[in-house]
Amino acid sequence: MKYKFDLIITGSSVHITTIDENGNQNVRNLQYSDETQQKMQKLDASQLVVLLEKTIKELIDELPKRSEITEIKLRESLDAWLFMDADGTMLLNQYLNVTELDKLQGYLKALKLNGVIDQLEAKSGVMISTETPLIFALWFKNEQRHLLSHLKYLSSMHEYIHFAWTGKNQITPHLAARTGMFDLEHNTWNPQALALVEMSEDILPEVVTDDQIVTNLLPEVIERLGVSKHTQVHW
Fold this sequence. Notes:
alpha/beta, two-stranded antiparallel sheet, 22% strand, globular
């Protein structure tokens, strides 16, 4: 029997749907333990990968023998961006407090007053708010300047998991646009936005089309999960 897994990651649980080749579905919701919750609050992305792999392995173990996993669909609703050094270690390990959130609002207001927001929104096609990674990156540049030279990777949890499972640091244009740092017309990271936050293009994921994004798992991930080399991951 062939199966597909559909996983939706939230801040408190993983929503899991198992679908067999006849379309029958089994739905469950896995709540995080207190320990996992604490690690999630510290933006421990590596812990999230461990949790996902453990969850998938347990799902497979529950299936009949010789079952085949053809597809794993992964979605997430985590509003977290990760600032990492060359080793993938988090330079920030917690969500921002109220005072820092007020600073984000101040940066957004200043950019609106000088007309920069209008220019960036026109290029990215998204409405920029305090939750937009561009504003978060601007805060990092100004408020964590001592860490700026150590910054080598900037990604969401989504891209982090993709890299951990495929070895490719990639993002699709519509997700790149949501950062506020992308130029949809020219299909590239926006030099104006990067100059504003003093960050280079090489710290960001490679932008690829939907049909170019890697869906094959790394051999070591295949072994850990117990799936086949034909199992595809869709993001």
